[in-house]
Each structure stands twice: as structure tokens, then as C-alpha cells.
Amino acid sequence: MTIDYDRLYVGGHWATPATGERIPVHAAATEELLGSVPEGAEADIDDAVAAARRAFDDPAGWPRWDPARRAEVLERFAVALEQRGGETARRVSAQNGMPIGLAQQFEGGFPPLLLRYFTGLVTGTPQEETRPGMLGGSSRVIREPVGVVGAIVPWNVPQAITFLKLAPALAAGCTVVLKPAPETVLDALLMCEAAAAAGLPEGVLSVVPGGRELGAYLVAHPGVDKVSFTGSTTAGRTIAETCGRLLRPVTLELGGKSAAIVLDDADLASTIESFFAATLLNNGQICWLGTRVLAPRSRYGEIVDTVTDLAKSLRIGDPLDETTQLGPLVSSRQRDRVESYIAKGLGDGGRLTAGGGRPADRDQGWFVEPTVFADVDNGHTIAQEEIFGPVLSVIPYSSEDEAVAIANATEYGLGGTVWTTDADRGEAVARRVASGTIGVNAYVNDPAAPFGGIKSSGIGRELGPEGLHSYQVFKTVYLDPERGRRALP
Ligand code: NAD
């Protein structure tokens, strides 16, 4: 039985879509049809933005509610999402190949957690302060919601990434029009069911599925005040150009090519689960993964063997099976892309030590074997370009300085890890890596700490108070009772 929707969630209502076009979705592991949703058109975006604009500009509307009153609604939203958490995880897993255990944690668990974190921040920390003026009087400094947000998300971790944007934006008092990726729309429409059940006020949230043209239309829409985008660096550049021309604030979470620096004192075997999570999680379809493994020449062969054994040991299979560690890629297009990089790696002289092809026992689904290349030069294409699949390059280095230099010789700067038995040494090396985030012996996106990239990995931060601030603008009200009473000079 397929999951099919005939209406879109626009302005807080289930609305008849402007056209009869539909987006079909196929299971990554079986290629079977999973379901379909209406494809949004420009007219649907117009309706959604108009509803968001009305809700935002209403003098008694959502942005002007007491934060605690917004928090009550968002708590109902969190509960409604929790009730659907298992089904959300199953839908994401079937659509994009994410192993179900991970989907339960990321896709089922993160959205309610993020809603509660950000509503707690808004209700628990002062959103305005009074500062004594240096020139007399005082200034009231107020954080206000930035306005109507156009949010665009990718397919790889669709619900968690959606809530990196929705949770702070809604808690701050913004209204949102979301465009999910066409590959993962069934989870997006389930999220709309939760929003409807929670009774989000009219206009506060709309979800309009579609492709890149529809995304570009939303980015440039005159009714949008701020854009928040997660996806490829190529699309991010185009969006940044549009927002630059319009002087529209924008947050960009883009690609990465992070380094996992294995120091010469590392005990990789004892941290192999964390190492797996930091390099190959979600079938390699995560932007912050450390896909360049930097190994000291003094232990190079041994580390190549450890990484190779890890790749060969992974259980490949149906992502809905709890024991699966590595599922298929999201689409045949994505598999083609990953396979073309494997061919380039071989062409450049990389030595294949694991994988390189499709699993022999899978004749359906977009599977690629976990693949390891040794003897990779950091200048090779597979070490410079984001592959977004289960492909690791092991690059040798001679000294700690050289390891840092190699880690930093990339256009990206998003994630990374340092592996060592000496935590102080690990932190010292981590501080030298040019990256927005980095971990020592593990990598986690903690909701309380800012996440984001430098260089071609993006602009701005999500998570933490910094993630909330990107949906707020400062307003200063000068208060000078003395001067107000006398004539100005
Ligand atoms: P993509 O950039 O093609 O698409 C992402 C989303 O943007 C989709 O919803 C798509 O429809 C939309 N889109 C594409 N071009 C657009 C444009 N010009 N204007 C407006 N919207 C547009 O990326 P993808 O291939 O679907 O996703 C994989 C990429 O996303 C990888 O490169 C990965 O690194 C990146 N990513 C980054 C992060 C992060 O947080 N930094 C997280 C996940 C994915």
C-alpha cells in the first residue's frame, strides 16, 4: 500500500494544490513506489508567503504573543511529533536509506527535543535589556523576530535539519514557509499532520514540496524576510547571490570534506564505533563526516588495515532492519555520482583496500559498498570534492604540523575529528584546524552548541543561542526623558 496525499499544508490548512502535478517517492532499498504528494507550484508559494506575511504583520499575531504562549503551542507540536516519531523514522529510512536506529534518534527524536530546547531558551533567557547610555539616558535593546522565513532543506537528514530551522524560527516568533527536497516528502507531510493536530495558528507554518526552481522562487519572493538553506555549496552560492542582491539575511549550511586526524598515539580499535559514526554514518550521506582520514606514516599500514576492516565488517542491508549498519543511497542519481568518484579515485592512482562496487547480494536498491582508498594524495579529486557516499580516503602525513596543513588544505571547513589517547593534545590539534566544528575522539552536534561552517561550508550558525539569534534582529529604543523635555540644540 502506498502513502498518498492529495492536499498541501498551506497557511495552517489542508489546501487544494494549484496544479495536478505530483512527486512520486521510491524506496531506496527496493526501488518500489512508496507514495506520492502534490508538487507545489509558484501559486502555492504565493499563498503560503501571503499567509505567513499576514500572520507576521497581524498586530495581535504570533510574533507579538508572549513567548510562554507560543511555547504552549510548540509543546503541543512536540508531543504530536513524538506520537508520530516511529512512523517518521520509518518513512525517512525507507525513502533515503538511513538505518532505522539512526532514523529513530535523528528523525524521530531530534525534532521534539529541538522545539523544547529553543522554546526553553526564549522563555528562560531575557529577550531584551536596558543599557545605561554613555551620552545620558539609556537604551532598550530588544530582540525581535526577523520576519517571514523561507526555509529550504535537503533529503539526507530531512526532519532533524528541518527543525534546526523551524524550532528557533517559530520559538523566536517568525512565521515559516518550508520547501522540503523532492526525495523526502512523505516525512514532511507527516510533520504537517503533527502541526495541524497541535493547532498551529493560521499562517505560522506552510510546507510546499518541489524542486530547485520552486526553491529559487521562494528565495527571491518579495514577501520573504530571511532565507535559511541547507544543501550543496553550488546551490548555496546561487542563493547567496540572490540574497546579496536583495540584501536579505541568509543562513547557509553547505558541503564539507572534513578530516579525521589520527594522531600517532591513537587507539582507533577502542573507539571504532565513534570513528564509524564520525566517518561513515548514514551511508556517508552527512555533510560533516570526516571522509579524509589522515594517518601518520609511522603507523600508516596498521591504520589503513583498521579502517579497511571496519568497512568490510559493516552489515549492509535493508535500512528498516534494526541490525543494518549501512543502507542504500537515496537515489540512482546519487549512486551514479558516488560511483563516478570511485572511478576517479582509481584513475588518480588511489589503492582500493575495501569495496569499490555494489554488494553482490543486492540486485535492487541503490547500494554502494563501503569503500576505502589508501595512498590518496590530498590533491586528488576524491580528497577535494564532496562525494556524499560511503567512501573514505586514507592520506599519509609525516608530522603533526603536516597533518594540520593537510586538514586545512580544502575549500571547506565544516566538521572534523582528532583521534588520540591524550585529550589535551587532541584539543590543541583541534584548535588549529580551520573548521566550524570539530570533535576529539567523537563527533556530535550538541543542541546547546553552535553548528555551521566556514569557507565554502557556509555562513551563519544553527543550534545553541547563536542559532536562535539568526532568527532575530536587534531593535534599539533610545530613552532620554531629560532631553525629551527640553528643546534640542
Ligand atoms: P541540493 O543543494 O541540490 O538540494 C538541497 C535543497 O535545495 C533541495 O530542497 C533542493 O530542491 C533545493 N535547491 C537546490 N538548488 C536550489 C536553488 N538554486 N535555489 C533554491 N533551492 C535549491 O543538495 P542535495 O544534493 O539535495 O543534498 C546534498 C548536499 O547538501 C550535499 O552537498 C551536502 O553536503 C549538503 N548538506 C549540507 C548540510 C549542512 O548542514 N552543512 C546538511 C545536509 C546536506
What does this structure look like?
With about 500 residues, the chain is of the alpha/beta class. The protein folds into 2 domains: about 5-255 and about 455-475, Aldehyde Dehydrogenase, Chain A, domain 1; about 260-440, Aldehyde Dehydrogenase, Chain A, domain 2, CATH 3.40.309.10. Helix content is about 40%, strand content about 20%. The chain is built from 16 helices and 21 strands. The strands form 5 sheets. Strands 15-16-17-14-13-18-19 form a 7-stranded mixed sheet, with helices on both faces. Strands 10-9-8-11-12-20 form a 6-stranded mixed sheet, sandwiched between helices. The chain has a 3-stranded mixed sheet with strand order 1-5-4, with no helix packed on it. Strand 11, helix 8 and strand 12 (about 250-255) form a beta-alpha-beta unit. The longest helix is centred in the first third of the chain and has 25 residues, at about 100-125. The mean pLDDT is about 95. The site of nicotinamide-adenine-dinucleotide has 29 residues, from helix 7 and helix 8.
